[in-house]
Amino acid sequence: MSKAQNNEAVTHRLLKKNRSSAKRNERTGKIIVFTSAAIIIAATIAITLFLGYKGLKTFFVFDIDIWNFLTSTTWDGTSESGAFSFIFGSFAVTFLAALFAAPIGIGSAIFMTEIAKKWGQKVLQPVIEILVGIPSVVYGLIGVTVIVPLIRNHIGGLGFSLLAGMIVVGVMILPTITSISADAIKAIPIDIKDAAYGLGATRWQTIYKVIIPAALPSLMTAIVFGMARAFGEALAIQMVIGNVKGLPDSITDQAATLTSIITLDMPHTTYGSVHNSLLWSLGLILLVMSYVFIIIIRVVSSRRKI
Amino acid sequence: MDKYSYEVENMNLWYGEHQALYEINMKIPKNKVTAIIGPSGCGKSTFLKGLNRMVEMVPGVKVAGKIKYNGEDILNPNYHPEELRTKVGMVFQHPNPFPKSIYENVAFGAKIQGIRNKSKLEGLVEKSLKRAAIWDEVKDRLNTSATGLSGGQQQRICIARAIANEPDVILMDEPTSALDPISTLRVEELIQQLKEHYTIIIVTHNMQQASRVSDKTAFFLNGELVEFDDTDRIFSNPGDKRTEDYISGRFG
């Protein structure tokens, strides 16, 4: 065999080998990604089924009336217990936090995308990333040592209150709202900004007549994402809200949320008791609400015009 | 009044360190269509955007010289670009209606100037859409989104939107380059109708288009104004060798 022929044979064999190993890699890759996807789906279904089973036991095994459970404000761990004050507390904190964080978040998003792009990217972006990275217990600690006394001394009440919860959770969801809003505003085509400027609009007119309306569905999505996070927040809120089992009278009054009651009561219940089962039902409400938030996000995002 | 909408004197323009326009001197006549032609990157769009100061949106831009619009120097620091842009409308390369209803699109300029009177706005929208020759196509769906229209219709909505500001100049930056031939034809017809009321300055890549629609043609090359004359003369008997080369397709 000549050298050239030999070389050709070697190349041929190498190519063939490469091709079969490429095929094998392809299959391995496929298996890895399919398995990953399957695990995520299975985990979601398993959590839903498990929480459903545990949470519904309250109504089907302990025979507690669902309506009573959802509307009563007494909470004593017996079968007469109702979760309304916590449902109210969770929604109150969520909406108040959104009310606090949405204007600031969207405002900063506009600032960093439209007003001071360089400064926004250099300073605001890292600040937001740091805010995301701070653990929830730290927010709680700051809430207890700074916000709570501040409210007690300047506004009234004990300090532990819905208001304190609103501020702490509001700050926690701020980066979520800001970064999703900023992405939404960045996605507005420059064409329509040019159109507004070309018609004699000032920068502010362009922002509030064109950019905000065009980004509105995405901005709503940002707010709902923030609310979903606020609804599920447990640790920090538990530290500042006071955890009083009853409906609050005012914003400076103490309250409790679904999450704070679960973390608070769970260690004190015996497995299989009514009280324990009631807590699982609270968990089920949280899960159902997170599904509701996802549905809202889907519906709102699908209305995007651009 | 003057017979020129614009008198540009010794206009130089830089993007940062890069000089994009050199010593442009040009008098643009009123109620005529002036076409600006030239190869890509020759500065024709930059020049057009200088005329309504939209070029200032680009960071690091510096403009020197005089640009007189109806006798007033618009580069004067006291001259508000917003005010200028209500008098000098602009139509862009890609149709860019707002994601709002047709009505809201056309009424936009008037609304930001503070006109709230509903019947006045309605009258203005109707008049503008009629002038832009699109009224008959959209009159029954003024409240549907403008982004649902065809590209050609969108571009005429954008022209109507510019007209609604009651400008006296309309700048057009390759307004038909994203349109199909039939839509292009309709926009060209529209330009002919519009010059009765407005001075039109159109940047185009398409030399046939320049010869079809314009009265005057300016040829830009490498940031310089090579030749500016009657369109007939530019296309039949250009004074500069470079113009002739470009028009006969020898480069660009």
UniProtKB/TrEMBL annotation, chain A:
Record Gene3D superfamilies: MetI-like
Keyword flag Transport: yes
Transmembrane intervals: 31-53, 83-106, 127-151, 157-177, 210-231, 278-300
Span of domain ABC transmembrane type-1: 87-297
Bilayer disposition of the protein: Multi-pass membrane protein
InterPro entries, sorted: MetI-like, MetI-like_sf, Phosphate_PstC, Phosphate_Transport_Permease
Protein name: Phosphate transport system permease protein
The keyword RNA-binding belongs to this UniProt entry's keyword annotation: no
Cell compartments where the protein resides: Cell membrane
Known function: Part of the binding-protein-dependent transport system for phosphate; probably responsible for the translocation of the substrate across the membrane.
Family: Belongs to the binding-protein-dependent transport system permease family. CysTW subfamily.
Pfam families in UniProt: BPD_transp_1 (PF00528)
Keywords noted in UniProt: Cell membrane, Membrane, Phosphate transport, Transmembrane, Transmembrane helix, Transport
Domain of life from the UniProt record: Bacteria
From TrEMBL, chain B:
This protein's record includes keyword Acetylation: no
SMART domains: AAA
Cross-referenced Pfam families: ABC_tran (PF00005)
One MF term in the entry's GO annotations: ATP binding
InterPro entries cross-referenced by the UniProt entry: AAA+_ATPase, ABC_transporter-like_ATP-bd, ABC_transporter-like_CS, P-loop_NTPase, PstB-like
Domain ABC transporter: 6-247
Transmembrane segments: none
Keywords, comma-separated and alphabetical: ATP-binding, Nucleotide-binding, Transport
Nucleotide-binding in keyword set: yes
PANTHER family, sorted: ABC TRANSPORTER I FAMILY MEMBER 17
Name of protein: Phosphate import ATP-binding protein PstB
Taxonomic source organism: Thalassobacillus devorans
Gene that this sequence comes from: pstB
